[in-house]
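Reopening this one. Same input as before:
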Amino acid sequence: MDRYDPLRRRTIALVGLMGVGKSSVGRRLASALGVPFRDADAEVEVAAGRSISDIFSELGEAAFREGERRVIARLLDQPPHVLATGGGAFMNPETRKLIKAQAVSVWLKTDLDVLARRVSRKTTRPLIADRDPMEVLSAQAEQRYPLYGEADVVVETGDAPHHTTVDQVIRALSAFLEEAPR
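Same output, byte for byte:
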């Protein structure tokens, strides 16, 4: 048994605001642990046969969230992996309950100014299209932080390189799992 074995026994679900690095850190975390990586947003696009932007514009956010909930439920039934969730996934009470029951949740938390700079570089985020990223992120933080706070583990990432964040997540998960009742 190696030191990562306890981290491979349950799915690790990454939650947090857009731009925090759930997908990029998640890929590297999965690689470090030797488990599969799943990106809920990419899986929703495959299931829907269209991009998230198209889902939002053609069907609306409610339809996207329902599809996201179904996809995450399916993914959580798979063997342990690292799961990057969409920024709003943990807001859905059913999705949050599923994640709490079937995974270890990790809130990746970063300063809003860092996130605003990161998300400004992408044009594929429907929630900030034609809007001020800092304004959107601030509103989301106010609404979402209380629920993200229900995550099993919180990792303050700052603007660190991905490998540093992966190390932080591994240390935090190891500490959490050592303290968790068996």
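So the earlier flakiness isn't reproducible anymore. For the record, The longest helix spans residues 162-179.
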